[in-house]
Design a protein that fits this description.
It contains 14 helices and seven strands. The protein is of the alpha+beta class. Among the domains are: 109 residues, Bacterial muramidase (Helicase, Ruva Protein, domain 3, Orthogonal Bundle), CATH 1.10.8; 61 residues, no CATH class. The protein has a five-stranded antiparallel beta sheet. The chain has a two-stranded antiparallel sheet with strand order 1-2. A hairpin with an 8-residue loop joins β6 and β7. It is globular.
Length: 316
C-alpha cells in the first residue's frame, strides 16, 4: 500500500463529528466534493445512502498490536508458495516486464517483489467499495486525509476512468494490484498501451507500469540494486549501522562486510548503509539509494527488505 499519505493523516476533533452524526458529516463531505468540482451526479452516485461500514470499522479498530522480528516477518511474507507463484507470474509476464523496464528503467525483480507483497500478484486486491471505506474512515477517525481521498476517488469516477462498481480495494481504500490510494492513482497510474484509462485492477500491464512509474518518480536508479544480503562481523553492532549511516561500499568491505557470490558489480564508492534488522548475529543487508525509493512506496525497512528479497528469490 502507498502509505506516504497515511503517515501524515490529519486527525480532527472527533467529539464534534460524533455529535453531528454521520448524515451531517456526509453532507459536509458532499459539499466539499461539490466545491472541488465533482459533478452532482457523481456525488449522488457514489455517496447517496451511505452508512458507516461496520466491517471497515471492525478491521480498523482491531488491528493487531504486536512487533515482529525480521525473522518472523520475513518467514511470513517470503513463503515458498509466494515464491512459486511469483516464478509462474514471471514466466507469464517476462516479455511485458522487459518492456516496462525498457520504458521506466525499473528492474523486474522490484516490480515482482512489490506485486507479490501488495496483492499476491493481483490475487488479493480487496473487495471493499473504496468510496464507502474511505468515507467511513474519514468520519470515524475525523480524518481530513481520508476525506480528501474519498473526493479523489469521486474524481476518478467523474473522469470516466472507472465506474463506481470497479473502485474496489482494501478496507483502508488502497486500490487494485498496486494498492494505490486514489490520489496516487490520479498522479501516477498509467495505461501502458497509451490507450484508455489506466486499469490497475484487471490489467497486469497497467498495474506493473504504474508501479514502475511510481518508483521512477521516486528516484529509482537504473541497473542498481535496492539491497543485498551480506555477511557482517559481530564487531559491527546497531550503534554503527542503520539506514542513516551511509558509507562507501569500500568502507564496509574494509570493516569486514562480505558480499555474497553473484552480487552485482558496483563501484567501490557506491553509498551504502548496513542494516541489522534483528541486531548483531542476525541477517545483515547492505542497502543502497533504491532502498529509499521502495520506502516511498511503504515507509518500512522490513517491507523494503522483503521486496528486494522476494524479487531475488523469484529470479534465482
Amino acid at each position: 500500500m502507498i502509505l506516504a499519505g497515511l503517515g501524515g493523516a490529519v486527525l480532527l476533533p472527533r467529539a464534534g463529528l460524533a455529535a453531528a452524526g454521520f448524515p451531517a458529516f456526509l453532507a459536509r463531505l458532499q459539499a466539499r466534493a461539490r466545491a472541488a468540482g465533482i459533478p452532482d451526479a457523481v456525488i449522488q452516485a457514489t455517496t447517496a445512502g451511505l452508512v458507516p461500514n461496520q466491517q471497515v470499522l471492525t478491521l480498523d479498530h482491531h488491528q493487531p498490536e504486536f512487533t515482529l522480528t525480521w525473522a518472523q516477518y520475513s518467514s511470513r511474507v517470503l513463503s515458498q508458495a509466494r515464491i512459486d507463484a511469483g516464478r509462474q507470474k514471471y514466466q507469464a509476464t517476462q516479455t511485458l516486464l522487459a518492456a516496462i523496464t525498457s520504458r521506466y528503467g525499473v528492474s523486474a525483480d522490484v516490480m515482482l517483489g512489490i506485486w507479490g507483497l501488495e496483492t499476491n500478484f493481483g490475487a488479493n486486491q480487496g473487495d471493499f467499495n473504496v468510496i464507502d471505506a474511505l468515507t467511513t474512515l474519514a468520519w470515524d477517525r475525523g480524518s481530513a486525509y481520508f476525506g480528501n481521498e474519498a473526493i479523489k476517488a469521486m474524481r476518478i469516477v467523474a473522469l470516466g476512468d472507472a465506474p463506481v462498481a470497479n473502485l474496489l480495494g482494501s478496507y483502508a481504500g488502497a486500490m487494485g494490484q498496486p494498492q494505490f490510494m486514489p490520489s496516487t492513482y490520479l498522479s501516477t497510474a498509467v495505461s501502458f498501451s497509451g490507450q484508455g484509462a489506466p486499469d490497475i485492477w484487471g490489467s497486469d500491464a497497467d498495474a506493473l507500469a504504474s508501479m514502475a512509474n511510481y518508483l521512477a518518480k521516486a528516484g529509482w536508479q537504473t541497473d542498481a540494486p535496492s539491497s543485498e544480503p551480506v555477511l557482517a562481523p559481530a564487531s559491527l553492532g546497531p550503534a554503527q549501522t542503520g539506514r542513516q549511516t551511509l558509507r562507501s561500499l569500500a568502507y564496509w568491505q574494509a570493516q569486514g562486510v562480505q558480499r555474497l557470490p553473484g552480487a552485482a558489480p558496483l563501484p567501490a564508492a557506491t553509498p551504502a548503509a548496513l542494516l541489522l534488522p534483528d541486531g548483531a548475529g542476525g541477517q545483515a543487508f547492505l542497502v543502497y539509494a533504491n532502498f529509499s525509493a521502495i520506502r516511498r512506496y511503504n515507509p518500512s525497512d522490513y517491507y523494503a527488505l522483503a521486496v528486494g528479497a522476494l524479487g531475488r528469490l523469484i529470479l534465482a
